[in-house]
Amino acid sequence: MTFTKGKSEETVVQPDTGRRRFLTSSAVAGLAGASLSLGLAACNKNESAASSAAASGAGGASGGDASAAINWDKYEVHPGKLDTYYAFSSGGHSGDLRIHGLPSGREIRRVPVFNIDCMSGWGITNESRKIIGTRPNGQLNYINGDTHHVHMSYTDGVYDGKYIFVNDKINARVARVRLDTMECDAITQLPNVQGFHGIFPDKRDPLDEKINYTTRVFCGGEFHIPQPNDGRDLNDPKKYFCLFTCVDAKTMQPRWQVKIDGNLDLVASSYDGKLACSNQYNTENGVHYEEMMAAERDACVFFNVARIEAAVKNGKFFHIGNSTVPVVDGTHEANADPKTALTCYVPVPKNPHGVNISPDGKHYACSGKLSPTATVISHELVLKWFDGGLKEPRDTVVAEPEIGLGPLHTGFDGRGFVYTTLFLDSQIVKWDLAAAIKAYQGDKNAKVVVDRIDVHYQPGHGFTSMGETRQPDGQYFISDNKFSKDRYLPVGPLHPDSSQLIDISGEKMVLVGDHPLYPEPHDSIMVRRDIIKTRQIYDLNEFPLAVKTPKENRVERQGKKVTVFLTSQAPTFGLREWTVKKGDEVTIILTNLDKVEDLTHGFAIPFYNISFVVHPQQTQSVTFIADKPGVFWCYCTNFCHALHLEMRSRMIVQA
Ligand code: K7E
Ligand code: CUA
Ligand code: CA
């Protein structure tokens, strides 16, 4: 094991040696060690936490706590001042999207997506229920989600501030959040996919010069299932496979799918629009985890977007089950000839996790996870392989440095340095991409690893400011850590996750902020604030149901269906009271006629599971059965006025 001679050995925190000895002796020794040490993460964190806490007083790795030398003013956002960046983070199994300001780390918004949200009424209003989707019995299709990856739409290879795309791993859905209002406006389920994990929008069209913006969203299916998964072929491995899905960014409907060998984990897309790729940790198609770690190498699979779309156009596709989405064959067997291949499987060491493209569009870095390496693949050489100019897919690899234990995710600073999270080492490693290529070519003097910094503890994703665009600014790296014992006041058995801010503008990385997070952000992006332009007030005409003037307040009845047309204007609702009969199906349409920024009203009906908000000039509606007779004070939940408490209406339900 030759990882990190020098630097890391010198700077290793002394009390930590027990953990390190264990890891180095077992983690990369092979299959058993790897699985053992991965499993170790959780039970190991006590030791690691205690030792790192002890270490911070003693200097530790770079940036441990050299607080004397740090210019804290640079990272402080004083009261009344605004942050420099937005960070958009997935919420993991909270099912939402989070928005933080950086460098302060202040949480400024949670956007409900796949979850039910009491604050806004997401999942309660008819409008949100329509987006989430309902079953014939009226119940919501799903009430949970697991968001891992958030990515913004692009124009000219840079974030354009229009949309965020985010995945739901549990129920194989992709959602779009519009950024002018920071609200989810579409959710689509991917057919025949289970465990939808990686997601990345394209950055331009591969053929049409004029289309220099996002029109596709690429989605990687992680769990292989019998196709179709309807109870047949339960134990026939040959019938199990995964799909790579392309969703139209505008209509949010699936355009095409690719049948592949192995699974798909994380996804990246090229700057020229020609390729998308995904790392695979289970090329073995194993059903049990021992089988998934059997092969020494897995792969990073590349998708030739133009060829796939040509194949679809030429009718070279099939369907699975009831789905009408065209599926092309991207398996090894069907793609042996590079000149016609739709896919290229580049072998990379054992169970990789994470693939990211450099801001100049030239290289992909695929992290080893169970191998202490990062594999650097050349974009140009992959295109060359597709042109028949290279013998083996593996010939596209231009570097494979050893960078540390448990490498997962990578960010770039635009100066040629690469920052990779090391889950097992609990570190961020900074390495030099050009030096790694030289070392691979045999240059023994190439200094690949240039810095390391301890994080607390066990990082998953890491990302740089503007790092996934053509305009990385090399200012900050965020390490989203899975554990945080001793970093925050204890709050019961579950500690917050931890987002640590690292200044990467200098030669050495410096830890400058700890921010606790509600579980569990995975991936995030860090976006310059000038890119985001939000609206403060809605357009009344956008809502077909809008109750446009106070005069339109009324109750209409058709048989047992009652519609209440209602307005809000601080501090009153347009109707003082209304009466319905027990058993009526009541729809309340509420338009907020206030035009003042931030003047949001709430509307709650006790004992009826109704609570939602309406922002200035917005219309929302709810429908329910008036099954409980009595008097119900519908009140404004959102503080809006000195007479906010008085802002109520009486719903009378006659027995
Ligand atoms: Cu590494 Cu889902 Cu991107 Cu979690 S994934 S950390
Ligand atoms: Cu309206 Cu409070
Ligand atoms: Ca494997």
UniProtKB/TrEMBL annotation:
Stretches assigned to the Cytochrome oxidase subunit II copper A binding domain: 557-655
Disulfide bond keyword on record: no
Any one cellular-component term (Gene Ontology): periplasmic space
Cofactors demanded by this protein: Cu cation; Ca(2+)
Biological processes annotated in GO: denitrification pathway
Keyword presence, Metal-binding: yes
Alphabetic keyword roster: Calcium, Copper, Metal-binding, Oxidoreductase, Periplasm, Signal
Catalytic activity: N2 + 2 Fe(III)-[cytochrome c] + H2O = nitrous oxide + 2 Fe(II)-[cytochrome c] + 2 H(+)
Coiled-coil region list: none
Subcellular location: Periplasm
Pfam families per the UniProt record, alphabetical: COX2 (PF00116), nos_propeller (PF18764), nos_propeller_2 (PF18793)
GO terms of molecular function: calcium ion binding; copper ion binding; cytochrome-c oxidase activity; nitrous-oxide reductase activity
EC code(s) of this entry: 1.7.2.4
Pathway(s): Nitrogen metabolism; nitrate reduction (denitrification); dinitrogen from nitrate: step 4/4
Top-level taxon: Bacteria
Location (main, coarse): periplasm
Family: Belongs to the NosZ family.
Chain's role: Nitrous-oxide reductase is part of a bacterial respiratory system which is activated under anaerobic conditions in the presence of nitrate or nitrous oxide.
PANTHER family, per database record: CYTOCHROME C OXIDASE SUBUNIT II, NITROUS-OXIDE REDUCTASE
Subunit structure of this chain's protein: Homodimer.
Protein name: Nitrous-oxide reductase
Organism expressing this protein natively: Trinickia dabaoshanensis
Taxonomic path: Bacteria, Pseudomonadati, Pseudomonadota, Betaproteobacteria, Burkholderiales
